[in-house]
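Quick entry between incubations.
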Amino acid sequence: MILVLVEHDAGSIDELSLQALALARALGEPVEAMLVGSAEAAGALGAHGVGTVHVAEDERLAAYAPAAWARCVTDLLERLEPSAVVAAGTNRGNEVLAHVAARLDLPFAANCTQVVAGSPMRLTRVRWGGSLLEEAALHGSPALLSVAPHTVAAATVDGADAPAIESFAPALDDADLLVQVAEHAETVTSGISLAEAKVIVSGGRGVGSAEGFGILEELAELLDAAVGCSRVVTSAGWRPHTDQVGQTGTKVSPDLYIACGISGATQHIAGCKGAKKILAINSDAEAPILASADYAVIGDLTEIVPAITAELRKARES
Ligand SMILES: Cc1cc2nc3c(=O)[nH]c(=O)nc-3n(C[C@H](O)[C@H](O)[C@H](O)COP(=O)(O)OP(=O)(O)OC[C@H]3O[C@@H](n4cnc5c(N)ncnc54)[C@H](O)[C@@H]3O)c2cc1C
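Done. Structure below.
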């Protein structure tokens, strides 16, 4: 049996967990799921091939606490003895399985794209912000692995029965709750989220200042686009971290990604290589971003971006 750690947001199952379930099913064993605190969410998992959903219930689990979630998993492992535990390669999925691995002194393979059952399990996983695919053998029982986001398609199973739902009370102790989410801060956004935007106008160090983003915002507004940025920009405090694209920011997949004054470091490309087309605006004809770009304009962005905006306005007015 394979046990999958499923995440949900107020009862709505996370898409990346559905992708993890699809990879788990491909291992050819019955699939059971564990989720924390929402029996309503559990019912939807039958359609994704889950036979039994184990719902961890304890009021102390109301706020996310990584060690407490890991305790829920290890409690189940003792009882159910699955051959593998699979999670989505999200911040939480990777963090919880890292705790589980440390407690059980087992190896953990994060961000897998393909897995072949066996002993050891053979797998391919994403390393170095997406610039390397590693072939590896995963020893240890149970096998602990997470699934790289958007590398496996979620899929439903025809004629699946509703899953059995079994609640359990994990044996939490105070140490499991030392680290937990204390507060959710609302972020102010322009209304279009980076993750969902069809067009993104993104700026790097070449934009020069927080005020310099004004011309990018103007263009973004015309294109119904979101504004993104590089890490240099967030480190300088010109834009919030929520706008950062890259390995340690958001991974985006718009139809068009307009990179203004961004050099194209691998850690940035890791976040925008899912774009269908990349337009680079850069004063340096040798900038590395040109290797990833479909189109490029070589020149000063403070002239080029307003010129594009003006042309778009003209075209719309005529
Ligand atoms: C572990 C780790 C994780 C990281 N994660 C991320 C991440 O998630 N996202 C990220 O972006 N980076 C990340 N980085 C940082 C990354 O390595 C680069 O330092 C960063 O992406 C560079 O940002 P930039 O392109 O804005 O700046 P620079 O590399 O300084 O490039 C500025 C570009 O602007 C151009 N330019 C300058 N003036 C103009 C002008 N007037 N008009 C047009 N072009 C102009 C220059 O030619 C240059 O190409 C990470 C680094 C590490 C080590």
